[in-house]
């Protein structure tokens, strides 16, 4: 199959179609319009086979996750997603794999009303790069650098599930069939918290998505904001499946350090704290307060029932070159 046959069969004209796309797939560039009084948020992420996902992973999950991690970045900034472009590198043409890949890609883009507007296909090692773009009203962008001492730290959903799912897939963790299905699906199909991100625009003081692990990503907020933090490990939101699989102590370690959850970690000042429940009421997503920002720049403390808790030897996933 030639490149343009591949694009025409699996990617051109599929999925959600937006009115703000003037020229989509088929020309040298896509042409779009940006609504008045909106800023454009742009993010790019690359997933490489054998590093970011098992090459034996279902094609649907690979596409789904490639889109989800980019939408999660937009969510962390409070942006409403609009368009994506895709650069896809494949070692060979497998039409069944491509059909499943396209299904996973369009399942998520349709749900969030996002249109695929262009990209590229090449012969090479399995990898995919997605650039996602979305809209933020002026002065509404959520950032890492705006947390203040006294702000409360929250996280969405439950933490550690995707890391346990990875451990199950790699053969390092054994559990029941029911727990396996839940945790592996949390690894394969993360939920980008887009609705939460837009709901937090006027409530949160800072925000980041949890891609590399809670401690690692919270550390980015602390560094950018020049603050410290206290995190209470007994308040970490843990799923029943994770604690049944690992036990409470190990589950807490995964919640602190395992990546790929793509939940949001955000801060809220005391004045806005009372508005948080109202802000999130339409999202059906639970947010849990796990600690507080302090004035001790760069100092991150863990506590268990107000007693010191040892810091894990590794704070999260680190990219190596």
What does it look like?
- The protein is of the alpha+beta class and 321 residues long.
- The chain folds into 2 domains: 5-136, 60s Ribosomal Protein L30, Chain: A (2-Layer Sandwich); 152-308, PurM-like C-terminal domain (Phosphoribosyl-aminoimidazole Synthetase, Chain A, domain 2).
- It has helices at residues 3-10, 59-76, 95-111, 161-169, 177-188, 194-199, 214-225, 240-246, 248-257, 270-273, 276-280; strands at 21-23, 31-32, 39-48, 80-90, 115-123, 127-136, 152-156, 206-209, 228-232, 264-268, 287-294, 300-304, 307-308.
- Helix 4 (161-169) crosses helix 5 (177-188), helix 5 (177-188) packs across helix 8 (240-246) and helix 8 packs across helix 9.
- The chain is globular and about 65 Å long.
- The relative contact order is 0.16.
List its traits.
transferase, 4-stranded mixed β-sheet, 7-stranded mixed β-sheet, Phosphoribosyl-aminoimidazole Synthetase, Chain A, domain 2, ATP binding, thiamine biosynthesis, 321 residues, 60s Ribosomal Protein L30, Chain: A, alpha+beta, globular, PurM-like_C_sf, thiamine-phosphate kinase activity, 11 helices, 2 domains
Instruction: Kindly provide the name of the CATH class of the largest domain.
Output: Alpha Beta
Query: Which value, in Å, is the CA radius of gyration?
Result: 20 Å
CATH superfamily of the largest domain: PurM-like C-terminal domain
How much strand? 15-25%
Domains counted in the coordinates: how many? 2
Q: Structural class given helices, strands, pairing?
A: alpha+beta
Note the total helix count: 11
Described by the principal axes of the CA atoms, the overall outline is globular
Q: How many distinct beta strands?
A: 13
Biggest sheet record: 7 strands, mixed
The main sheet orders its strands as: 8-10-7-11-9-12-13
CATH hierarchy: architecture of the largest domain: Alpha-Beta Complex
Indicate the percent of residues in helices. Answer: 25-40%
What's the overall average pLDDT, rounded? Answer: 93
Low-confidence runs: none
Q: What is the fold-level CATH name, i.e. the topology of the largest domain?
A: Phosphoribosyl-aminoimidazole Synthetase, Chain A, domain 2
C-alpha termini separation? 34 Å
The H/E string reads HEEEHEHEEEHHHEHEHHEHHEEE
Domain PurM-like N-terminal: 26-135
Pathway: Cofactor biosynthesis; thiamine diphosphate biosynthesis; thiamine diphosphate from thiamine phosphate: step 1/1
InterPro entries: PurM-like_C_dom (IPR010918), PurM-like_C_sf (IPR036676), PurM-like_N (IPR016188), PurM-like_N_sf (IPR036921), ThiL-like (IPR006283)
Enzyme class: transferase
């Amino acid at each position: 199959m030639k490149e343009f046959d591949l694009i025409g069969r699996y990617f051109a004209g599929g999925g959600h179609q937006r009115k703000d796309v003037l020229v989509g797939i088929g020309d040298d560039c896509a042409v779009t319009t940006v609504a008045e009084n909106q800023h454009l948020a742009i993010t790019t992420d690359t997933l490489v086979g054998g590093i970011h996902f098992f090459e034996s992973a279902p094609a649907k999950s690979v596409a789904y996750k490639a889109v989800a991690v980019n939408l999660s970045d937009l969510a962390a900034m409070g942006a409403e997603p609009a368009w994506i472009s895709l650069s896809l590198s494949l070692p060979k043409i497998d039409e069944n794999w491509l059909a499943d890949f396209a299904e996973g890609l369009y399942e998520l883009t349709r749900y969030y009303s996002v249109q695929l507007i262009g990209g590229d296909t090449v012969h090479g090692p399995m990898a995919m790069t997605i650039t996602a773009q979305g809209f933020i009203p002026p002065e509404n962008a959520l950032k890492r650098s705006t947390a203040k001492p006294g702000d409360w730290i929250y996280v969405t959903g439950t933490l550690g599930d995707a890391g346990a799912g990875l451990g199950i897939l790699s053969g390092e963790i054994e559990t029941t069939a029911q727990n396996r299905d839940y945790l592996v699906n949390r690894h394969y199909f993360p939920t980008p918290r887009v609705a939460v991100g837009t709901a937090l625009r006027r409530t949160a003081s800072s925000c980041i998505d949890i891609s590399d692990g809670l401690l690692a990503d919270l550390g980015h907020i602390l560094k950018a904001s020049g603050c410290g933090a206290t995190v209470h490990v007994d308040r970490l939101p843990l799923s029943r499946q994770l604690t049944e699989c690992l036990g409470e102590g190990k589950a807490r370690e995964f919640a602190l350090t395992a990546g790929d959850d793509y939940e949001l970690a955000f801060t809220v000042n005391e004045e806005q704290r009372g508005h948080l429940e109202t802000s999130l009421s339409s999202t059906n997503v639970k947010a849990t307060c796990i600690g507080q920002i302090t004035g001790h720049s760069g100092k991150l403390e863990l506590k268990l029932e107000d007693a010191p808790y040892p810091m894990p030897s590794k704070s999260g996933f680190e990219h190596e070159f």
